[in-house]
Please model this.
Amino acid sequence: MRLLLVGALVLACAGAAFAQESSQERIDPPAASPPQDRGEPRAPAAPSQSGGKAGEGAVEFRVGYYDNSDGDSDGNPFLDESLTDIEAVVVVEYQATDKLRLTLTGSYDFVSSASIDRLSNYPEQSGASGDNYFSGDLAATYAWSDDLRVGGHFGASFEYDYRSLGFGGRVEVDVAEDNATLSMALNAYFDSIDVIRFNGVEDGTDNRLSLSVNLGYYQVLSPTVHMSVGLNVTHQSGFLQTAYNGVVLEDPARPLSEGIDPDLLLDLNRLPPGVAIEAEELPDTRLRSAIFGELRKSFPEIGTALGVGSRLYMDSWGIASASLELKLYQWLIDDVLRARLRYRFYTQSAADDYEQRFYVPLNQRSANPLRPRRERTQDSDLSAFSSHPIGLKFVVLLSDRIALDLGGDYVLRSDGIDQLLFSLGLRWEF
Model:
């Protein structure tokens, strides 16, 4: 029903901090991440670790909570957009040989949203009280030589009306006397969607294909300054709209009043005069591209590190966005407790087919609401908005091999659809 929560499953490291010696902070597993579609371009990963002593590894458990409340938002005026996601993630890493490292990731999500509640009002979907999402991914990285690493992954996921298979490969080459790394990754995802419309009608099955290429460059500028840049291009084709999204059509001669109760639009046989609801319709192809950059500076004498990153994005649907992120890492108790504070500014333009309200005369509407005459969406994530995520995370090193972390983020959106995220993780290395 929703788009895939994460485009790639990645492991976490709550151990040695960048503030002292690490060249990069690993990304957390997907727990406590807002729902995202897999086609969203992401920054290239920093150089991976494939070498080590055979038999070593790690196990990590993580629980995440994500919530966005509709409240009095300026998003879709006819739709309650509230959503809650509770996620559990397990990551197992194992050094099979001194050159081969395996990573197995599994996750479970329970998603409760107003859109699922709406579907449960219709006899065809009366059992849809929540969305259960299961995902698994197996990745391997092999050190072909001292300067060359290759890897790949294969994963699958499924939920109430969605099934997906994904696989990809990655190659990394160290250059400049191992002070720089070039990387390239290719990924493909094949999705099958049971099309369940806004009125509970099952409208067959459709497919979606996502192909992406990711180029990255990582450079050690000095013992305390590191940088990375990257480019991502993704092409998607097939069923790209959200099946259960509806678009409210108003008669320009009789527009709905501001602040109308969305519940008045649940009974499709008793809609207000001049009002109709039809399926969301969007183009069946989308080309997405983004460039990334990040610079990090550590101050070992005071246990501090600073990071500055930026991202520019554009796609063929007319959306352009830019972001700037600041991160501060600080040891509060040397080798025991550290903190990470971050702030991100994000702004985007609206998709070409987005409007908050559509005024369409009766004689210009399709006779079949599931086959609209033109492309339209009222999805707030495709609107123009800006956001201000603020996050704080603590990592406690309980021993040389055990670490506990707790983090939270609050996202202020200009359209009022604010988001709250929490994550709790435990990592044990053996």
Notes: The two ends are 39 Å apart (CA to CA). The first strand starts at residue 57 and ends at 68. The domain at 57-429 is CATH 2.40.160.40 (Porin).
